[in-house]
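Example 3.2
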Amino acid sequence: MTDMTIKAIRTTLLSVPWPDTPWLKGHAFGEARNFLVVEVETKGGIVGMGYLFSFRPGLKTIVAALEETIIPRVIGKDATAVEGIWNDIYKTTVTYGRGGIVTMAQSALDIALWDAIGKRANMPLHRLWGHVRPKLPTYGSGCFRGSGGDGMIAKALHYKERGYTAIKMQMAHNHTLRQDVDNVKRMREALGPDMIIMIDINQGWDADTAIAQGRRIMDYDIYWLEEPVPADDFKGYMRVAEALAGIRIVGGETHFTRFDLRPFFENPRVSILQPDPMRGGYTDLRKIAAIADTWNIGMAPHLFPELNVQLLASIPNGAWIEDMGLSEDLFVDPVPIVNGMITAPERPGHGLAFKPEILKDCRVK
């Protein structure tokens, strides 16, 4: 038996230049991509890896949370005790955790632990968890509002040319209500009747505005309206879902753990949930998926297609995987998307490793 006692936990901050592509323009990304890599080394020599990505500052604060509140409690424990470790961290940090920085720190560790467990079992996680399907549909995300109507359409057409059957564009924040509706109209005209159009509001409206705008775009065959109101406005979510019966109302990427999502289960009008692996890790994502399946709610987790494919390939209610092209140039063996479909890799664990030159040249000293 391989000794899975946790010997060391290492953290690495990366600042990685954006790839030279026009398709990541139109969003205030900053000068580089910011990653936190967490490695868990066991006495038996197995190393599991987890990571976080952030559009905004905060990763240094997450490192501090790991070093002060989490790593000291985890060193010396068995890496296979991932459920016990998750619950211990959640309960011992409850007075200042239950979400935010501490939960994100916990999530990076959790992903690394599951990677180590998969490597110990010599199985990909989707097999370890109970394989359902090898391939899942992927939608082309990142038709950014900042690129204007023409820019969003150009990127959507780029996805269509690559064989995607669905794209996601944005509304709200920096266009007038009338411009937003016109952008949707033009997008439908450009893509034709068969392409699926999803729309992300990024919490940009109140419920009344979401209902009014939703009715104005109903004729353009919109698949879903994402985060139409602020994350904490659960009553607003329910009002919008009730009023716009012809459009799926989705959300959840900004919520932390299954506990934060509880109102969506108590009143299951949101038909697809989009939890983020950074806000609870694999352990909590699997629980969210099980609860969602009980209520016939689909799962389309936020970003991280290369991580989320492991979960969605192992559950019956996996709906969509989001692809924004944020990290496909970073990994030794990236997870390719072909004709709008992603295939879960058969490598042990989550099957991902950052390129050595990325870890060396982009390390924040």
